[in-house]
Amino acid sequence: MDSEFVYRRRVEFADTDTANLIHFTALLKFMEEAEHAFYRSLSPDFMGFRWSEESVFGMPRVSVSCDYLGAVRYGDEVDVRLRVREVRRKAIRYAADFTIERSKEREVVARSDWTIVCARREHGSLDWRGVEIPPALKARLEAMLTA
Questions:
Q1: DSSP state, residue 104
Q2: Of 122, 66, 114, nearest to 91 (Cα)?
Q3: What is the per-residue pLDDT across 1-51, written as a single tens digit (0 to 9) for each?
Q4: Could you tell me which of 61, 70, 58 has the C-alpha nearest to residue 29?
Q5: What are the Cα distances from residue 65, in Å, to 80, 110, 114, 136, 137?
C-alpha cells in the first residue's frame, strides 16, 4: 500500500472569499473530503459512521491544526496528500500537505494535522465513549505507516 493517499479538489466559487482567495475553512473541508475518499478507497462500504439498533459508531475529530503557507484561488486544483502519522488503540492521527501546480511544479500551500477517535453512542444518550479502531481498518492504517 502507498504511504500517502492523494485527493484532488478544484476550488469552487463558494470556497472563496471576496478577495478571490480560498476561505480558510474550505481547506478543512477538503481535508475531511480527502479522509472520507481515503476510507472509501480502503473499503467501499466504510463511511466513518454506522448505525445499528443499539448505537451509532462515529469518528469525530478531537484536534485539528492547519498552517497556511501560500495563496489558493478560485479555479486552482488542490491536491490533498494525506498520510497516516500514528495509529493508537482508539485514535488515528493524520497529516496532509495541500499542493497546487505553479510554474510546472507542485507548491505546498498548507499543512495540516488532525486526530480522530473511534467512538460509539448508545441511542437515547448524548454521551460518546471511545472504542477500539475496527481491526480491518487498523491493519490497513498500520500498513500505511510502514509503507
A1: T
A2: 114
A3: 468 999 999 999 999 999 999 999 999 999 999 998 998 888 766 655 676
A4: 61
A5: 15, 10, 6, 28, 24
Q: Other CB atoms closer than 10 Å to residue 42's CB: what's the count?
A: 16
Long-range CB pairs of 39-42, under 8 A, 24+ apart, other chains included: 39/137, 41/5, 42/137, 42/140
Our CA dihedral for 26, 86, 82, 21, rounded to 10 degrees, sits at: 30
Continuous H helices in 43-116: none
Three-state secondary-structure class, residue 40: helix
Joined together, the cell numbers standing for residue 77 give 486544483
In the block, which residue shows the cell 501546480?
101
Tens-digit pLDDT profile for residues 114-129: 999 999 999 999 999 9
